[in-house]
Amino acid sequence: MTQIPPPGSPRGRLAPSPTGALHLGNARTFMIAWLSVRSRGGTLLLRMEDLDHPKNKPGAAGAALDDLRWLGLDWDEGPDIGGPHAPYTQTQRRTHYARALETLRARGLAYPCVCSRRDVEVGQSAPHAEDGLFYPGLCRGRFADYEAARRVLHPGRLPAWRFRVPEGETVRFEDGFHGPCAQQVDALSGDFVLARDPDGAGYMLAVVVDDAAMGVTEVVRGDDLLPATPRQLLLYRALDLAPPAFIHVPLVVSEEGRRLAKRHGDTRIGALRAAGLAPEQVIGLLAWWCGWAAWGERLTLRELLPRFDLATLRREPAVLTPQVKAALKIQDAGGDDARLSSK
Ligand code: GLU
Questions:
Q1: pLDDT classification of 289: cutoffs 50, 70, 90
Q2: 262 given a catalytic annotation
Q3: Which of 148, 215, 255, 294 is the right S-S partner for 143, CB 3.0 to 4.6 Å?
Q4: Rg (CA), the chain
Q5: What is the pTM of this model?
Q6: Are strands 245-249 and 218-222 parallel, antiparallel or unpaired?
Q7: What is the position in ligand 1's atom list of the atom closest to the CA of 203?
């Protein structure tokens, strides 16, 4: 799309991670993100979130773009087409994260930490954050500087950087789908990791830095990331950045209510393409899950656009039932229980 967006119109983003193939679950979330922005004449960017090196799969980044295009999604800026905020690939944006880390450090809001994952696990009394370990601040105030922390570690290991979470504060925000949300971050996750080493910015810091730098005004993503949002809001404030609106939408789950895994069937968009399905069938099914189409209806994204309404998006998670699997000719994949993608 090359039209000039009206002033004040939304800027959204699609942020795939190349840690697995695009499947029905993340395709549904991307579709909602696309519809939300396009229905208001806004702009969309695509950012490749490839910081999680060990989990990246070769070829997954290109395949994700290809699958999204096949479904009919488009974007105005991205790694394939460039744009005013290039680069759009996180591994090429490390200087931005290092600068933000330096700001936090200069403000006394980041400190070096030498704890291993095991140190943190041992100190764990009860499960806290659903998406990570509670960190009780063992290294808070312990080292004068990064060098001092490095000296206590074996050569070859580097300290991490953690964010100093304010004590006793409840972070509140209005989610565009879930409504009012509140979380006391120091009680739930504690001081969280900003970077695994000086150059190794993690998801939490990178996503905040990038969404702010790229002028993103709304974030539509799966509600597995709802618990991470208060941490991100603390970073926005600490870096004097304006946060976007957050809209967390239900995930696609198995019949037992579990996150989609390979054993639930091959729901990769690539597999559906290979089985000869048309994009209209897949969009129709995704739209039916949302409550915006009849069962078996085929439609393009453009046809779906006028039906988009967050107020009518079904509140329940979308379930991969035998009926859905039959309609999309989804094969049982069997095998391991590996998740289909990172989030
Ligand atoms: N890259 C993440 C994913 O693939 C999304 C992160 C976000 O939306 O904040 O799920």
A1: very high
A2: yes
A3: 148
A4: 21
A5: 0.93
A6: parallel
A7: 6
